[in-house]
Amino acid sequence: MEKELIELYEVVRKAADAVSVEGKDAEEERCLDAMRQLKKFPVNYNVLVSSQVGKSLRKLTKHPRERIKSFAADIVEVWKQIIVRETIKNKKSENSVNEKPGPAIGSHEEANNKKYQPKITKLDKPEPAIAMANSPVSEKLPKIPPAKPERTNLSLSKKPENPAPPKLSALIYTKDADRDQWREAISKALCKVVEEVGDDADIIAEVKTCDPYRVAVQVETALYEKWGSAKGSNRMKYRSIKFNITDGNNPDFRRKVLLGIFPPHTIPELTPDDMASDARKKQNEKIKEKALFNSQRSGPSVASTNAFKCGKCGKRECNYYQLQTRSADEPMTTFVTCANCDHRWKF
């Protein structure tokens, strides 16, 4: 029964697909005939659930042909009523079975309760703790209040996972005169940061938590590990770092090094633009903008036209300019650029 229903639906589906593709009236009539047989086919709840034909038939309710769409909706509605009727019928049958009395079971339970009633009454004795509470011995015992759970302050008992190292009270030396000289110069510059931050309370508090001696040691160590000794070819690199970090007009770089905005291991990789002060960076930006403006102004003036046709894309939106590339008595050379495909040519 289920197999026959699926085969009949496949006939309906194929005919409906043919109508959608070819649009022939003969295919539509064939589809409607198959749907009439499908409507008369005897179905029940179990067959519809196992075959899932109802879900597939719903797709035909959105068919472009009005007759097929309405017929499919009619079949779906009929099948819905069949499912509802069978569901209500099954519920009524289940309720009638559950409402049947069971005297035999009830009588046995009552007999058992009566049989074991004396044993249950013998066990109804007061708890030992309750009996002792009423005895004279319990009156002599002092009453101990229940212990309250101690509340520990988690914020105080919990230790930080990575505690900050203690601040150094003095500079750590390496017994290398050259390296110690650089450490002293860097630490002296970093110690001035607290006096240069101004009146911002947040920045002042943040700077005071930093350790200038430890940062100076870390910076010098990073330079030494990257470049080696400060003699020979590396001397200019060291002097560039020292000049920027001790420059009286560059407090921004010192502050960024102390606060860790520039970590010690990144100091050897910094460029002069990175180490420049904020004011100097603004001046450099203005210089670059002015140079760019002058370079654009000194170039040839570019005009737009549709007088030239691009040989690559065929469009006429072009930009052009003219220059005197030959002798004065020769005509000027025209340089054309297509605005659409960026193709360039000259004549």
Automatic annotation (TrEMBL):
It comes from the Eukaryota. Keywords: DNA-binding, Metal-binding, Nucleus, Transcription, Transcription regulation, Zinc, Zinc-finger. PROSITE patterns: TFIIS_CENTRAL, TFIIS_N, ZF_TFIIS_1, ZF_TFIIS_2. SMART domains: TFS2M, TFS2N, ZnF_C2C2. Residues 10-86 form the TFIIS N-terminal domain. Belongs to the TFS-II family. This is Transcription elongation factor. It comes from Cuscuta europaea (European dodder).
